[in-house]
Write a structure and sequence with these properties.
alpha+beta, 13 helices, binds adenosine-5'-triphosphate
């Protein structure tokens, strides 16, 4: 069945709603633009990605420690980081249809058009509204930080911001971490949490939202080691996308950002992009931020943020390599990558309809095993319930389903990405075995019920 990228995205969005991965938020009040709920399976998928990340990069390493800083912090830090001054996107409006665009996105789209002449770069004044061809306003800078007021008075002294990224928390906690954990450089500080940006053009489902989650590490290192640390973390990110998320190499682009395009303080930046159905767009990034952040915070806080090198007895201001992962964008990439669509006969056999299988890596799947008694009553149901209890006792997330035909039950589990389904049938009652059906190979195998929990655990 030939499916266009638009159709794939529509099918994904409807599957996410129907099966409880992602819903439009506040829907009973007409929704709230670009806000989403992660439903019962969505929150499990998101948490599984987050937990894999935290285990891999924090718990199982000697050279990374964790942090959980508040979302609203001392607003002075955003002056130091440059966010209050510069964290803005260029905005243009269409004078005719009033649509709003990011000027940099319009320029990129123009440059991607066939026949674009690099020698004669496009200028904003040459661009018209992509919706109605109307004239656009001049570019204005729009600060994307959400402002709020802390305390009972609502004046300038109470202004604070919702953090636009988690990274800031690591820089302002650096001094305490340096003094309390006594790690040798290079070492990293990791944080997972919500970030907020008043995006001009949110959209593409959960790709760009105003509230999202990030997983970030600031790796503090001796300045001369930063290029090497960068390579090591770039390799870690590659391994993450291919070995953990199992994204296909043909869908991932490692985009070396040129000196003209990257932030002025960055000595090297690589964007890790993914081929979403709506185009190749940023998934993650990694940057060598030099000592920009620590030098600014040292200047604004008047604290000495240098590190005493025990070998040379010299104080150095560390450089920082920052690998950053969008958690909610990871969920989208994983869903896009592993949603497999083919066709099946409709119930009456008269037509064809899309059949969807989420071929999620088993460790990320929200449900690992499903158990179906062939019949609801008597021993089959009680055997099935015992198996569910035995799987759960091993910490394996398992569903019990006794409703509808076995075919329908398989379809439901295929759509939520459950790797293994176990059916308890007439024979099971006598010989205490079950049939396991593999989601991807579609093979069926007979196993002793007593062996099932270990069989699943081994495959996770
Ligand atoms: P973009 O160019 O897409 O706006 P960015 O370069 O501004 O992204 P960073 O500031 O580098 O993004 O943020 C780090 C990561 O956080 C991104 O790689 C992405 O995964 C995620 N991210 C950033 N903005 C959003 C958003 N509005 N919604 C969801 N995820 C986001």
């Amino acid at each position: 069945m030939a499916i266009s990228p638009e159709q794939k995205m529509d099918l994904l969005v409807s599957l996410c709603k129907r099966r409880g991965f992602v819903y439009p938020d506040s829907e009973i009040y007409g929704g709230f633009a670009n806000a989403f709920d992660y439903g019962p399976y969505g929150v499990e998928l998101k948490n599984n990605i987050r937990d894999e990340w935290w285990n891999r990069f924090v718990k199982l390493r000697d050279d990374v420690v964790g942090l959980d800083a508040p979302i609203i912090q001392n607003p002075k830090m955003w002056d130091a980081s440059g966010h209050t001054q510069n964290f803005s996107d260029p905005l243009v409006d269409c004078k005719k249809c009033k649509s709003r665009f990011r000027a940099d996105h319009l320029l990129e789209a123009k440059q991607a058009e066939p026949g674009y002449d690099k020698e004669k770069p496009v200028e904003m004044k040459d661009i018209r509204c992509p919706k109605c061809n109307g004239e656009l306003t001049d570019v204005r800078q729009f600060n994307m930080m959400f402002k709020t007021a802390v305390g009972v008075t609502d004046d300038a002294s109470s202004v604070a911001y919702l953090r636009p990224e988690t990274a800031g928390g690591m820089f302002v906690a650096w001094k305490n971490i340096r003094d309390s954990v006594r790690k040798r450089l290079p070492f990293g500080v990791a944080q997972v949490g919500k970030a907020f940006r008043n995006e001009i053009t949110p959209g593409n489902f959960i790709f760009r939202t105003r509230e999202f989650e990030q997983m970030e590490i600031e790796v503090f290192c001796q300045p001369h080691l930063a290029p090497e640390v960068f390579e090591q973390w770039l390799a870690e990110m590659k391994s993450w996308v291919f070995d953990v998320l199992k994204l296909s190499p043909k869908n991932v682009v490692f985009h070396e950002i040129s000196a003209e395009e990257r932030a002025f303080y960055s000595q090297r930046t690589v964007d890790i992009e993914y081929a979403y159905p709506f185009g190749v767009k940023e998934l993650y990034g990694i940057a060598n931020r030099t000592d920009y952040d620590l030098s600014r915070h040292a200047e604004f806080s008047k604290e000495d943020l240098r590190w005493l090198d025990p070998e040379t007895n010299e104080k150095v201001l560390p450089y920082v390599v920052e690998p950053t992962w969008g958690l909610t964008r990871s969920v989208l990439a994983v869903l896009c990558e592993h949603l497999d669509i083919d066709e099946a006969d409709t119930a009456d056999g008269a037509d064809k309809e899309p059949r969807m299988v989420l071929r999620l890596p088993p460790r990320l799947a929200p449900v690992k095993a499903a158990v179906f008694p062939l019949q609801k009553k008597d021993e089959m149901a009680s055997l099935a319930k015992e198996l569910v209890a035995a799987l759960r006792a091993k910490g394996i997330v398992t569903e019990y389903d006794e409703s509808a035909s076995i075919g329908k039950r398989y379809r439901r589990q295929d759509e939520i990405g459950t790797p293994w389904c176990f059916t308890v049938d007439f024979d099971s009652v006598n010989d205490k075995t079950v049939t396991v059906r593999d989601r991807d190979a579609m093979t069926q195998e007979r196993l002793a019920i007593a062996d099932v929990p270990a069989w699943v655990a081994e495959r996770l």
